[in-house]
Amino acid sequence: MIEIYTGRVGKIYLTTYEDGLPTAPVATPTVVVTDASSGQSVASGSPTLVDSDYPGEYTYNLPSSATSVDRVLKVVWSYTINSRLSQETEYVYVSTPYATPDEISAELGFSSRPEDPNYFSYEKIVGAERVARMMIDNYLGFSIGKSQGSVVAYGSGADVLLLPSRMISVSLLKENDETVIDSSNNYNVFGFNVELTETSYGLRIIPPNPGDDIDEQEEFDYTGLRKGRFRDGYRYEVSGVVGWNYVPMEIKQSAFLLVNDLLCSDSIWRTRYVKKINSGQMSVELSGKAHFGTGNAIVDDILQKFRMIQAVII
Description:
Helix content is 18%, strand content 34%.
């Protein structure tokens, strides 16, 4: 599995083989990178030979734009050996870590020196953080990252549209599949500008003048107030950057606790579905909650705040 942290320099590797042995192709391979979901082109070019003494080993640096948000990249390598064209496809996961290896080592007191008793390899820490992140996402029902995407919500006749996911920015608004706002092209036939609410879980209409009230009624009246509302039952598609600009402290602390559980074997019994242990004079029975949530009661309590956020939309 190839994972690159969001915002980091992305480097991917290729080794060209023939009959199971690294073999130099007749010409430098080519690489095409696209967004695995949308098919949108991300990058293309030729990789660099790592070392002339090691034929067939290449590396390619992804542009910074490729890793600016969470997503999955499809990478297609093409090369020719002995007049035979070969193509290899792999997928790169661009993800926001909830705690970096350096942060984890500093927080949990891990050493990077193999001779130390508290040593854990970089690869083990990265793997444990990935599992901890998946556990948190599974418990919350959503991930703490940022990605380009769209959410769908239905109007209720009010000047605020409640969103099912947190958004960082909005660039496009569709009403019943018709584009009414496209900020990239300075296009607006909605009649009002819109902005995200303070919690980023809602989209609201901006009054034409600061302090003005927005009249949500259907009919115009003699007062001449401008009518602004997200129409009841209308389908609205809101596109932009979805998620979080940073990892909240509570999420990061939860990741620390779960990584500690995973690397220090505190979760060994839960992963084997053991409920009760009898050993001589000692008897241990795990709470039923150990097999639900994240398996860590402290983490579950910390994350409860984010589960409740889903009910408090705006």
